[in-house]
Amino acid sequence: MKTSKAVLKNVWPYQKDAMNLPVGNLETAIPYYETLMGFKVVSRHDHPFKAATLARDTIQIGLAENGGDPTQDGCFFEVDDVEAIFEELRANGYEKEEADFQIQKYGVSYKVFFVVAPDGLCYCFGQKIDL
């Protein structure tokens, strides 16, 4: 197993805003992102609703108790090594045995896998590949 961590290079939200990803309960959501996904909370606020900004590498996302439906949102994370990020998640407690890698095209081709967080948000991790 690799010992180096994968680098998250870019983030693209599925809906409108990676800084306002909806969660039902901010306090119960944050530990998953810190423990499993390697994010750190860099700021919090309570108005107009509870929210936190989380950072990893050069990217940031925001979780917010904004009344949105988490099952309809999430982000695509571009990573430098999709296999390394899967192994890192597994080492951090992700219970899925296989990544079920797929090849998807978004102008360029990516090797991807999906993670659904306990809060319902869906994340796709992908690495650019040449076919």
UniProtKB/TrEMBL annotation:
Domain VOC: 15-128
Signal peptide extent: none
Name this polypeptide is given: VOC family protein
Provenance organism: Runella rosea
Top-level taxon of origin: Bacteria
